Write the structure tokens for this entry.
Amino acid sequence: MAIRNIVTEEDPILRKKSRVVDKFNEKLWMILDDMKDTMYKAEGVGLAAVQVGLLRRVVVVDVGDGTGPLELVNPEIVSADGEQEGQEGCLSLPNKWAIVKRPDHVVIKAQDRLGRWHRYEAEGLKARCFCHEIDHLDGHLFTDRMEKMLTEEEVRRLQAQRQQGSE
Ligand code: NI
């Protein structure tokens, strides 16, 4: 296992569409393991493969609710409802935070590291995180969807509280 380098906003790869995974082999398992290490080291709550420079539809999530780390391969939103408005950040956009509207409840489906399909239901922060990470797979960043960027002062206050990790 290894910590991988997280690409940041300037890197055009973040705007590219990631490819569907069709081989559930040791290479994929190594990517998943490295992504989990990298997410925890960076104190994030989610990470998409494109953020470590790999255009594959692979995501890891751990919002600290006891269900993580989740390994989501080829994740897709099945249904979304409700609305939440809250702070959102991204490990690829360090020190940037914004108010972003997201569905409050989502159901997604994703494959695991062996290719088996599962459904996951999520509310609140986890629903936000699923939407944020699946957006990454299509080249979207939270700044595309934000209502309002937080000021430096608001970011400092937020970091002092350490309420939420970046995705
Ligand atoms: Ni992100």
